[in-house]
Amino acid sequence: MDSMTIIAIVSIFTAGITIAIGVIGPALGEGRAVATALTSLAQQPDAAATITRTLFVGLAMIESTAIYCFVVSMILIFANPFWNHVITQVVGK
Amino acid sequence: MNLSSDQLVLWHYGFFHLNETILTTWLLMLTMTVGAMLITRKLTKEGTPSRWQCVLEIIVIGVAQQIKEVGLPNPEKYIGFIGTLFLFIATASLCTVLPGYTPPTGSLSTTAALALCVFVAIPMFGIENQGLRGYLKSYLEPTVIMLPFNIISEVSRTLALAVRLFGNMMSGAMIIAILLTITPFLFPIAMTLLGLLTGMVQAYIFSILATVYIAAAVQVSTPAPIPVPAPPIKQSPKQTP
């Protein structure tokens, strides 16, 4: 295997692994957050505005960790610096 | 496939490149500025205000109330900055209903610029409110050992602001592009609807986080009690015992 193939294999594999593992934590966290918010909404419907606002902000903060993983995997697939380096080397030859 | 709209260069002259991101940003700025100027040209206090004046008043009062609820007591001072952030991001993501439009917030350069604005604005408001000494002293809270960690958190939250907005906008466009190749007609529309919702939520979160950071910088020395925001009066659903 030449270095190009190795880089391609490692990049694609790592992109999949990144998003697969990176999504587990935020999914559990968001599930817990929504469940707790629903419980408190059922207990205090009057505080719905505050609870919903805090819930949305919190969800977006939790979700951003998953978004970081997504960005990394997108960079690995579409804008891979190592891949571009190898391509320029091959073209330059 | 393009990861961002930066890579589509429409026109270049010498070392100056006009890419799609800059063009859409300029168009958005032009539309919003001209619109706001047209509306505010004839504001009235007497009689019935025009429809557009009502819209602007609703927006301004709503933003000011949100800023106040987060913990900044005089929102008039900050509404220029925070309201602009919110309106720009919200308009940028709401315009996705127009065909052929790519949101400028889906490019890391735009979001990095917005986050840098917040990064600069936090110490500015902080120094203005409690002086240079008082602001610099807030980095030594609670002890001197925390100094590097405070600086790291300052930088990392700016990075997080930029990447969060970029990732959300870019993922929305990316998902729609991928779905267009699989299920062309109906399903992308549903995802576009979801994208509109995420765009609004992200605009809200970006401005709320900026407000929270500014509030933290402004009132470090005198920790005011966190105000409990009164829920807005509205009809809560009737409860049956």
Plain-language structure description:
The complex is a heterodimer of chains A (93) and B (241). Chain A is built from 3 helices and no strands. The mean pLDDT of chain A is 88. Chain A is an all-alpha fold and 93 residues long. Helices cover 90% and strands 0% of the residues of chain A. In chain A, helix 1 packs antiparallel against helix 2 and helix 1 packs antiparallel against helix 3. Chain A has a single domain, classed as F1F0 ATP synthase subunit C (F1FO ATP Synthase). The two termini of chain A are 19 Å apart. By secondary structure, chain B is mainly alpha-helical. Chain B has one domain. Chain B has 6 helices and 2 strands; from the N terminus they run E-E-H-H-H-H-H-H. In chain B, strands 1-2 form a two-stranded antiparallel ribbon. Chain B starts with 8 loop residues before the first strand and ends in a 23-residue tail after the last helix. The model of chain B has no long low-confidence stretch (mean pLDDT 84).
Taking pLDDT < 50 over at least 5 consecutive residues as the criterion, the unreliable ranges of chain B are none
Termini Cα gap of chain B: 57 Å
CA-to-CA gap between the ends of chain A?
19 Å
Proper CATH architecture of chain A: Up-down Bundle
Tell me the fraction of residues in β-strands of chain B, as a range: under 5%
Q: Name the shape of chain A in a single word.
A: rod-shaped
| Domain module tally of chain B | 1
Radius of gyration computed on alpha carbons of chain A: 21 Å
CATH superfamily of chain A: F1F0 ATP synthase subunit C
